[in-house]
Amino acid sequence: xxxxxxKTLAAKIRQELKLEVSELIKKNxxxxxxxxxxxxxxxSVIYVRNKETACAEVGIKTQTLRFNEDITExxxxxxxxxWNDDKTIHGILVQMPLSKSIDEQKVLDAIKPxxxxxxxxxxxxxxxxxxxxxIFYPCTxxxxxxxxxxxxxxxxxxxxVVVGRGELVGKPLANMLLKKDKTGNATVTVCxxxxxxxxxxxxxxxxxxxxxxQAKFIQKDMVKQGAIVVDVGVNRISKNGSTKLVxxxxxxxxxxxxxxxTPVPGGVGPMTIAMLLKNTVKAAKQQIIEAKN
Amino acid sequence: xxxxxxKTLAAKIRQELKLEVSELIKKNxxxxxxxxxxxxxxxSVIYVRNKETACAEVGIKTQTLRFNEDITExxxxxxxxxWNDDKTIHGILVQMPLSKSIDEQKVLDAIKPxxxxxxxxxxxxxxxxxxxxxIFYPCTxxxxxxxxxxxxxxxxxxxxVVVGRGELVGKPLANMLLKKDKTGNATVTVCxxxxxxxxxxxxxxxxxxxxxxQAKFIQKDMVKQGAIVVDVGVNRISKNGSTKLVxxxxxxxxxxxxxxxTPVPGGVGPMTIAMLLKNTVKAAKQQIIEAKN
Lengths: 293, 293
Hints:
2 domains; globular
């Protein structure tokens, strides 16, 4: 049984990116990510701090604007438009969730596709469905695919069962696994809360990817012997006064029959951030090419 | 066994739309569809003629611009921008395929989302993946769902197996069948040319939707007893000097075990056009509301 160690792999990817950034810096270009953070939601604050730290490690400059909960949609849209036109900002990230009065997707859609390093604007998501590739793929699904590929796991021809149909992971990932190249070509099943007899589907998976947001949802009897299991869940569980992170998969039990499995934490999470860095470096490179033309 | 008679249902929908259009005409608004047709590709010429005829029947005005194969991408984009700004044009349809030198998706993406009655621009397709609904759903997938719903077939909780991962049917349909309402909530599997042991998947389908573009690809032994079968295929077969249209499903054999099945022709095809009309009427209504605001 192999542990798919996203933490170590993400560190390796950061090293690769550090070299790329140092080449850019020689040309006087410092990749620059603009981050918008609204409110004080603790996990968002932590995520943004982790992203800033990872950016700093590889040499990407970050600029984080923090707004109170009462910022209006209009004010956010104006800030995004300003950054869209600012040639010194290569990538724009809006940390979700925003406050309830704000149309989150409208805010994401305002980001110009070539600065949308989170890959969540409709223009980029739409190209997951169309025949033309997007400029950026969303970070969590691409982190999952990168993790599988770098561990030498074949996706093509496999039956990938995705548990969860969210807009951040389940749905974009399902589309990406259908791509006509070695990162895709899978047969894809998407299950969710309305699926009847969900074990019938999860047990068929060669590669089982779980993003349903319920602690230990996937039990051993729901997994085929030898399956590859990717756990996207991040559930905070309180026990004896302390908080513990657990995934959507019962790791201790499922790891006994899986051929490979991601831990939580240290699996998909660090890969998501690594893909954000990769996209930001790509954004900086592309905008240099454009400026030359 | 029920024949899912798309031809008769589409005629009924056209009658409903005719009433809606007559209400609009009383307010001096005539829904108006702009159509772009490039080249002389015979099926495209026929499709456009069928669309024009259907529009005329319900009272939608059409204006078709025909261009030679040598029209440039830039010229097409300019025409679309002109129609985007033309308040008398409510919907814009670009008949595919275009000539090989043209980036088809770039042309589709140029159509403003609220005039994109074919639902194929990245902005509308992206909202199939995001949490926010698109303004228009693509016509063939929504025709399939409308056909099922109007025949009283429950989609929720069913296992829908989609054969084919094209950008016009397979992929958008798979996303739509995951929607969180009674037109979705299905468990969805997408199979395609790279799927291993495809019968294993098709035989599990409660609802089997086939859009793979191969005549009689689905044989009786690939279908579960009592399944609902939707055939999106349109294959032209020459026999004894005459041309015959056949679907992707071996209708004569599969209809012996299916509980419901669409014929070809007369199944999905007329529903696709009905959804185009529905979208165009919706576009006209929405643009009136916008003009008032």
